[in-house]
């Protein structure tokens, strides 16, 4: 990487770090919301949920 | 008498078929407006003027000999510069992609081309549909036609600006966490994020495989319905594309009104987050209008917004990093500051982080789907907590503070339509979104059309958009 490239990346460091810290916080929020790790979950079954939409009674 | 750029798709179509208007005149008028107005707004990064006129002339010749390709025959449009158009570069508004010439049309562009629509050019975006309003990119950021110093929203910034300013009646955008609905809010246009899987994303540069949606921005609800009618449908080349029955007629029930509909109103979703009084009052006004028009509006609850936000942002950042990993390794200095700062944290997310986020996504989608969208036809929800900030007030480093309420429905995949409901005290637009059941865009369009018909504040236009075309007196 050219020296100017190194300077550009170094200059972005703190902002990147702050966003990384935010990602760690969000990952923690997610873990707190999930009450159990043992229940089954289809990770890619959004389609089934959306297609299962039913009209109000 | 309307100026040409004020004609709806159906009005223009009627005149094209009766011989009172040509597609060439329609395209030439749009190109004239772009020439004069775009220099202040930077909505277009590429104008395909000569090709547009040739395509328009072809559309005229076809109509003259009885070949009618449907609703969009001869209608001008433009696309966010992440959509591939054969022979044109797809820059994603990034220095990294300046020489990236597409070999094929994206599926959406191909459908519009097959439908006889006339491409005017490509539109500004935040870098890779992610970054922010930035001045360290190869093109300047698009400017809000209501007030150029103010943010126009993003990332489909050029799409909303071009439509609001009357440079094109319709444009295509993409929405991963609100990138169609946010700009629609700030520019006072209609923006539709369809259900996940309804519109193909093939040939559209991805940001997050699990959250990306393609959809239209338009001047009116009816125009948005016309575009959706043309671009919806299964595409085997997009693994997320749904195999549905034939698309419904999205125009059929636009005038059906609101009687018999139940609309949920999760007011806590924005009031708990410090929503501005302008926006809160505007939303309460929309709820009252829905009631007056015959809908039953009930206050309902959704899970805490932060859960949707955490889930969506972890998925988006992890997948965005996966998409950009190679380029970040080879040319990281060529990314804009904001984009770099938003992508690189993905390197620190673990497989477990992504897995848990995907699990939570399914739980949230089920809660919304089997809860409030089981008892109600749609939800009325805030798009943004406040009107636009000034671009110069954006921080030097990307700030994770989130004022939009849009990412929730990228997480759940439900369709969401944003539209204007007036102007705040400072003269900047305010809007709202209606969210519907999976693949029930027809009901969203019906609700939006009823509101638009009943309320002048849904039809606000910036002065630029109602001014005559700069170098002509073209009327129909």
Any chance you could write out the topology, listing elements then pairs?
The complex is a heterodimer of chains A (57) and B (476).
Chain A: H1 3-11, H2 13-33, H3 46-51
Chain B: H1 9-18, H2 23-41, E1 44-47, H3 49-64, E2 76-80, H4 107-114, E3 118-123, H5 157-164, E4 170-175, H6 181-187, E5 190-193, E6 213-218, H7 221-231, E7 262-265, H8 268-271, H9 277-292, E8 296-299, H10 305-331, H11 337-343, H12 351-370, H13 372-375, E9 378-382, H14 408-412, E10 416-423, E11 429-436, H15 441-454, H16 463-466
Parallel strand pairs in B: 2-3, 2-4, 7-8, 7-9
Antiparallel strand pairs in B: 1-3, 4-6, 5-6, 5-10, 9-11, 10-11
Q: What does this molecule look like?
A:
The complex is a heterodimer of chains A (57) and B (476). Helix content of chain A is 63%, strand content 0%. Chain A has helices spanning 3-11, 13-33, 46-51. The radius of gyration of chain A is 21 Å and the shape is elongated. Chain A starts with a helix and ends in a 6-residue tail after the last helix. Chain A has 57 residues and is mainly α. The mean pLDDT of chain A is 85. Chain B is of the alpha/beta class and 476 residues long. Helix content of chain B is 38%, strand content 13%. Chain B contains 16 helices and eleven strands. Chain B has an eleven-stranded mixed β-sheet with strand order 1-3-2-4-6-5-10-11-9-7-8. In chain B, α4 links the parallel β2 (76-80) and β3. The longest helix of chain B has 27 residues, at 305-331. At the A-B interface, α1, α2 and α3 of A face α10, α11, α12 and α13 of B.
């Amino acid at each position: 990487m050219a020296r100017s490239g190194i300077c550009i990346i170094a200059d972005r460091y703190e902002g990147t770090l702050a966003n990384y810290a935010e990602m760690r916080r969000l990952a923690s929020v997610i873990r707190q919301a999930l009450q159990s790790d043992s229940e089954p979950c289809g990770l890619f079954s959004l389609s089934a949920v959306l297609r299962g939409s039913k009209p109000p009674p | 008498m309307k100026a040409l750029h004020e004609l709806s798709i159906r009005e223009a179509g009627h005149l094209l078929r009766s011989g009172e208007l040509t597609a060439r005149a329609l395209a030439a008028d749009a190109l004239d407006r772009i020439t004069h107005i775009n220099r202040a707004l930077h909505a277009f990064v590429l104008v395909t003027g000569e090709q547009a006129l040739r395509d328009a002339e072809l559309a005229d010749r076809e109509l003259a000999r009885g070949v009618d390709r449907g609703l969009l025959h001869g209608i001008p449009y433009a696309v966010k510069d992440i959509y591939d158009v054969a022979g044109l570069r797809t820059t994603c508004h990034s220095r990294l992609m300046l020489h990236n010439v597409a070999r094929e049309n994206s599926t959406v562009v191909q459908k519009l081309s097959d439908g006889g629509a006339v491409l005017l050019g490509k539109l500004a975006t935040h870098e890779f549909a992610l970054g922010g309003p930035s001045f360290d990119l190869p093109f300047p950021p698009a400017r809000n036609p209501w007030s150029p110093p103010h943010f126009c929203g993003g990332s489909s910034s050029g799409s909303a600006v071009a439509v609001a300013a009357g440079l094109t009646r319709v444009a295509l955008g993409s929405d991963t966490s609100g990138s169609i609905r946010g700009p629609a809010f700030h520019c006072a246009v209609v923006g539709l994020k369809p259900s996940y899987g309804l519109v193909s994303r093939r040939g559209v540069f991805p940001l997050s495989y699990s959250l990306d949606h393609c959809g239209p921005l338009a001047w009116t609800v009816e125009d948005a319905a016309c575009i959706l009618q043309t671009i919806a449908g299964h595409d085997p080349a997009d693994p997320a594309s749904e195999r549905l029955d034939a698309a419904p007629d999205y125009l059929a029930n636009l005038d059906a009104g609101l009687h018999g509909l139940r609309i949920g109103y999760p007011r806590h979703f924005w009031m708990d987050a410090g929503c501005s009084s302008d926006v809160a009052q505007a939303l309460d006004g929309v709820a009252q209008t829905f009631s007056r028009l015959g809908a039953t509006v009930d206050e309902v609850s959704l899970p805490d917004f932060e859960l949707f936000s955490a889930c969506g942002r972890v998925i988006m950042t992890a997948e965005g990093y996966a998409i950009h990993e190679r380029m970040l390794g080879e040319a990281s200095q060529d990314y804009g500051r904001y984009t770099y700062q938003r992508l690189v944290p993905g390197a620190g997310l673990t497989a477990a982080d992504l897995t848990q986020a995907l699990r939570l996504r399914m739980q949230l989608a089920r809660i919304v789907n089997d809860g409030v969208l089981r008892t109600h036809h749609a939800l009325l929800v805030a798009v943004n907590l406040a009107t636009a900030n000034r671009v110069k007030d954006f921080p030097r480093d990307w700030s994770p503070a989130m004022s939009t309420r849009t990412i929730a429905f990228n997480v759940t995949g439900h369709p969401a339509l944003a539209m204007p409901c007036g102007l705040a005290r400072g003269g900047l637009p305010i809007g709202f979104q209606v969210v519907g059941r999976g693949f029930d865009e027809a009901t969203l369009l019906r609700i939006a059309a009823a509101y638009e018909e009943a309320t002048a504040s849904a039809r606000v236009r910036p002065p630029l958009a109602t001014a005559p075309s700069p170098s002509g007196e073209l009327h129909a």
